[in-house]
Automatic annotation (TrEMBL):
Name this protein carries in UniProt: DNA starvation/stationary phase protection protein
Domain Ferritin/DPS: 18-155
Organism domain of life: Bacteria
Transmembrane segments: none
Family: Belongs to the Dps family.
PROSITE patterns to which the protein is assigned, alphabetical: DPS_1, DPS_2
Length: 156
């Protein structure tokens, strides 16, 4: 069926492709955060275990919202580990780093995701896609706040 939402097919495809990268980064960060939730040790265990749970829970909701926006634009959302590995800019952690290294990796992950999301603003602006821009703005706000909170754990 034809999609007629005021955004042409070329722009919808380009935006959906960009959102696929946001989705892949979000999923990679979700997996990393969940890994760290399960495997953190040390004197900050309780604080980090609880904090990481809140973060991966928030990311799970965000993943669904991003995927549904991709579908609203008429594209299929990437949904496999191989697709995420290809599209994501966030490095996978295969080991169990020390707690402070976990925090540092999550900061980097959130900052990477922020940059991926920001990269879509030009096409959203040119296509008058306020809905995607609003979604990206909300995601950026969450990731900036989370990165700040994580950085605060390493200061002082």
């Amino acid at each position: 069926m034809q999609i007629d939402i005021g955004i042409n097919e070329t722009n919808r495809t380009e935006i959906a492709d960009g959102l696929g990268r946001v989705l892949a980064d979000s999923y990679a960060l979700y997996l990393k955060t969940h890994n760290f939730h399960w495997n953190v040790t040390g004197p900050m265990f309780q604080t980090l275990h609880t904090m990481f749970e809140g973060q991966y829970t928030e990311l799970a909701t965000a993943i669904d919202e991003v995927a549904e926006r991709i579908r609203s634009l008429g594209a299929f959302a990437p949904a496999s580990f191989s697709a995420y590995a290809e599209l994501s800019s966030i490095d996978e952690e295969k080991g169990v780093p020390a707690a402070k290294d976990m925090i540092a990796q999550l900061i980097t992950g959130h900052e990477t995701l922020i940059k991926t999301a920001r990269s879509l603003y030009p096409i959203c602006d040119s296509a008058d896609d306020d809905a995607t821009a609003d979604l990206l703005t909300a995601r950026i706000q969450v990731h900036e706040k989370t990165a700040w909170m994580l950085r605060s754990l390493l200061e002082g």
